[in-house]
Amino acid sequence: MGRLSTAYGQAVAAHRHAAYRLAQARRALAVAAASAAPDTAELVAGLDRIAAALTAPAAPPATGPLPVRIGAATTVDGGFPALVPLGAGHHLVVDRDARDARVGALLRTLVLRLLAAAPAGTVRVAGIDPATLGATFLPLRPLVDAGVLAPTATSETEIAALLDEAERHVRGAGQAGGPAGELLVLVAASAPGPRELARLTALTHAGDTAGVCLLLAGVSPGAERTAPHATVLRLNERYALLGDPPRHPFSPDGRGLAAPVQLDGDPQPGAAAALARQLGPAVRRDDPPTFADLLPARRWTESAATGLRTVVGRAGREPVTLAFDDATPHWLVGGRTGAGKTVFLLDVLYGLATRYPPAELQLHLLDFKEGVSFTEFVPTDRDPSWLPHARAVGIESDREYGLAVLRGLRRELDRRATVFKRHGVSRLADLPPAAALPRAVVVVDEFHVLLAGTDAVAREAVDLLEELARKGRSYGLHLVLASQSATGIESLYGRAEAIFGQFPLRVALPGGGGVLDPVNDAAGRLTVGSAVVNTAAGVTGADTVVRFPNAHADPTGLARVRHELWAARPDGSPPPAVFRGYEPAHPADTPAFTALHPGAGTPVALVGRVVDVDGTAAGFTLDAVPGRHLAVVGTDPTGAEVLHAAVTGLARQHAPGRARFLLAPLVSEAQAVAAVLTAVLTAAGHPVDRLDAVGLRDRLTTLATPTAQTDTRTYLVVFGMEAAAGTLERPDPETFRSGREELRTVLRDGPGRGVHLLGWWRGLRPLVDDLGGAHQRDDVACLVALNVPGADLGLHLGAHDLAWRPRPNRALLVDRHDQRLQLIVPFVRPEREER
Ligand SMILES: Nc1ncnc2c1ncn2[C@@H]1O[C@H](COP(=O)(O)OP(=O)(O)OP(=O)(O)O)[C@@H](O)[C@H]1O
């Protein structure tokens, strides 16, 4: 208030001085009038009116215009200050642009005077200068650095973005229903294109309380008509002629001030820097938005019936709200690595989760990169809380997990279609309250990973995304696809338009201009923490530059919000289904494994967890059908772990004495596992035999011999089957049958007699040799492929487009009998990781 009264005091003093000089001028003119000089009587009358205006008690600056000096009106008697009203619905139009040095100096001077006259932080200035590419404002650089003056808009895109911001500012003032708290001064040093100029002049009609003031240079005199709220200044070679200020005319007939005006020159050198020092601290309050700015005043008070809305940041000082609704059902977000995509998505998710209760909003979050994007939404050892809206969260997801989530969502759409039919509605909002369904927001971070290549996973993912995008609008399912690049994705060739056409809302972070129209370069100059938001599928001119807060900068604030939401969750809310791509699978953490018990039917060999939404246990039933044996293939020592899990699981399914285990650890890596297994099985009361290669061969002969049917199972567990190749190849001197022949008999006939082989082969080739050729592959119908190249495996299975790429902590489960192919996380013992 102190600064306001000082500025106002200064303005009043200037008025008084002007009034005094005016009186002097009037006297001089009266003398001239007496000598019948033409026009002087009129001039006197005009000056009288100005004097009346100047000496009348002025309205406080908050509600009235500021009188700002533009130069000196010259009379025969000398000069007096020429003032123009600015602000509170008053604007200035100059007929020449800043390429006339007098205009450039005038604009700079006016900017300094307006800033100096108003309380710090209440005036914001933005320049437009297409003709001199910003040169007009260069001397004011210290004010730009201090954040008082916005960087000059010179290109069509920048000017359009600035106009968007100004229009939002005006709308914001309109909605607030009173004088805007801040005066936005738009200074056009030269006229922009006709469209932008039309938008600028339209702003001059915004009214006294809109909080916007335009100084338009280089606008033709006809602008008087287009800008009835502006004082018009025309320049001739020596002077400027000042038109009548609207509502405070100098002349009775619109001829303006009769005294020509000598415009003030440039401000003193150093004036801009001094002002910047003075205003900087107050303006720095206009720091980037904070996380708290995104949150609603009260939690869970909004209804999602017609869509979801959240504040994502600010454009200038205006909050920017984005929606998932009929107009913008899906969003496409682009930005290079480190551009702030994850932070932006977190801002959106917290904004939504605080506005809508879990009954109105569900979240499905998929992250395909190494990182921790959505970890904070799921329970951990350190923090048991979770975001109650989260239904499925994939962290460092496999593509197959993404596919599983998308398939689940398609089923959800089918379910919703049935509900809609039952109620005879076609929109979510029309469902009766008792049948209301939550909206679902599905975020896929780094979606290009999911769609990479042209394999079966990519093809199915593209189909699913297209279907979800197409139907999602009416069923309340909204997609947010984020990526470093939305272009050049092979699997999208010919499909991109059909899919991205459903994504009208584009958010381009730094380096993410690819989500905008190819000719739209609005994202070219973004810095981290800002984004271009475009609600017209990226076309030029529909851009808003938004600054968004760094959610990660306030982890405590974030945790507080999350805990508050968690504490408020409805009774019985389940935690989200979580898939952590980096996490190994332990039998002891898998409910289906720990639930195994004797007498539960056909034994199953559990080998890991399926990469799916529920983390289903992965396994094979070992029934009496020929070929019900398990081959674990690959050099990865996990092979021994998989057999360990399968065997301990089988042991749990048999009462003591009802199963026999024959363990053949033929390779050194398996000795320790076999020792542990022997101890476990023995402790469980099961007979265990240890075999070497020769013992294995002998036992195969025994097992191949038909015996009377018993209900005792025999599990022959061989670690490193290829190590017995030499022994098995040799024919028996008496029967002339080789060990391999005995083996093949066991493979075919064993299951019928309760005999199953569980073997680890360290390569596909030895397995094929043992089977007697690839055409015999069904003799071992259950396969767990570890580090086996996809091409080799595809060849072995006769599947030419097998989407398998060997990687740590993953295996491909193949059951040739039920045509099952599943990506699994193979079981390992916890102690193995510690080694
Ligand atoms: N609004 C912001 N304000 C200030 N700094 C930010 C903002 N957003 C992000 N950053 C900074 O950028 C860093 C990277 O952000 P983020 O992790 O969101 O990037 P990303 O695009 O997801 O990158 P990547 O794909 O490599 O994970 C953050 O750690 C933070 O330091």
From TrEMBL:
<dbReference type="InterPro" id="IPR002543">
    <property type="entry name" value="FtsK_dom"/>
</dbReference>
<protein>
    <submittedName>
        <fullName>FtsK/SpoIIIE family protein</fullName>
    </submittedName>
</protein>
<keyword id="KW-0547">Nucleotide-binding</keyword>
<keyword id="KW-0067">ATP-binding</keyword>
<feature type="domain" description="FtsK">
    <location>
        <begin position="317"/>
        <end position="518"/>
    </location>
</feature>
<dbReference type="GO" id="GO:0005524">
    <property type="term" value="F:ATP binding"/>
</dbReference>
<dbReference type="GO" id="GO:0003677">
    <property type="term" value="F:DNA binding"/>
</dbReference>
<dbReference type="InterPro" id="IPR027417">
    <property type="entry name" value="P-loop_NTPase"/>
</dbReference>
<dbReference type="Pfam" id="PF01580">
    <property type="entry name" value="FtsK_SpoIIIE"/>
</dbReference>
<feature type="binding site">
    <location>
        <begin position="335"/>
        <end position="342"/>
    </location>
    <ligand>
        <name>ATP</name>
    </ligand>
</feature>
<dbReference type="InterPro" id="IPR050206">
    <property type="entry name" value="FtsK/SpoIIIE/SftA"/>
</dbReference>
